[in-house]
Design a protein that fits this description.
The structure is a single chain. A six-stranded mixed beta sheet has the order 3-2-4-1-5-6, sandwiched between helices. The two termini are 39 Å apart. It is 42% helix and 15% strand. The longest helix is centred in the C-terminal third of the chain and has 18 residues. Helix 4 packs parallel to helix 5 and helix 7 crosses helix 8. The protein has a single domain, classed as Phosphoglycerate mutase-like (Rossmann fold). With 242 residues, the protein is α/β, with parallel strands linked by helices.
């Protein structure tokens, strides 16, 4: 399919160059990597809001059912060749449920691990507020300006995340790949795909086992799906999750 840019530019091209331009356009589209970005399923620390980060909290029973439903949805619509996951078990188990219908092996990648919450890891917001009240307020109101004590900034995370996405997309040109991550890193990846600043962090949602899709080629991205969870509607509804 030709892009709008190509169609608008075509009438102004030298006719002798038209064939070459169309060929270049088709070749670029052929080289696109289709990326399916998934958030892991529910854990106990989603039910009671805590700063999870790199704490290795397993999926709960509902989270496993979410992962299985996500695997069925992806198998019905896409044909991935490779699946990558954060090394944390909640992401790996989600990735395995996606990989099973395709008999694929899950590849763990440290570039997909979630933000380092440092001294906040494992704490509830109320517990954090007792010691870092002003920093917590900054996290909720201007997250792009905050360094979590002992942890990462969103800029640190974005550099790592986008380098990982670009590297994997380059390795798998013209293929469909699955990346399984976490709420914070997935939001940051989507901001990078959209070309938005980290100050927009709280304006993107990532539900557990949400599916996002985008095309990637040579540092350029086309977003086609974000925070899709219709495949989970048939599951019994849990309490509202953070």
């Amino acid at each position: 399919m030709l892009s709008m840019v190509s169609l608008e530019a075509a009438p102004f091209l030298d006719p002798s160059r038209m064939g070459a331009v169309l060929s270049e356009q088709r070749e670029k589209e052929h080289q696109m990597t289709n990326v399916i970005l998934v958030r892991h399923g529910q854990t106990a620390w989603n039910r009671e809001e805590r700063f999870r980060g790199r704490a290795d909290i397993p999926l709960d029973e509902y989270g496993m059912r979410q992962a299985e439903a996500t695997g069925r949805r992806i198998a019905a619509e896409w044909l991935p060749t490779t699946i990558y996951s954060s090394p944390l078990s909640r992401a790996v188990k989600t990735a395995e449920a996606i990989a099973n219908p395709f008999n694929l092996t899950v590849n763990t990648h440290t570039g997909l691990v979630d933000i380092d919450y440092g001294d906040w890891q494992g704490l509830s917001p109320d517990e954090v507020r007792q010691k870092w009240s002003s920093t917590l307020d900054g996290w909720y109101n201007a997250p792009h300006l905050i360094r979590i004590p002992g942890g990462e900034t969103l800029d640190d995370l974005r550099k790592r995340a986008m380098e990982t996405v670009s590297s994997l997309a380059s390795q798998h040109s013209s293929e469909t790949i699955v990346l399984v991550g976490h709420t914070v890193i997935n939001r940051i990846i989507l901001l990078g795909v959209l070309g938005l600043g980290n100050e927009r962090f709280w304006y993107i949602k990532q539900e557990t086992c949400a599916i996002n899709t985008f095309e990637a080629h040579d540092g350029q991205f086309i977003l086609s799906l974000m925070n899709e969870t219709s495949h989970l509607l048939s599951l019994s509804m849990p309490l509202h999750l953070p």
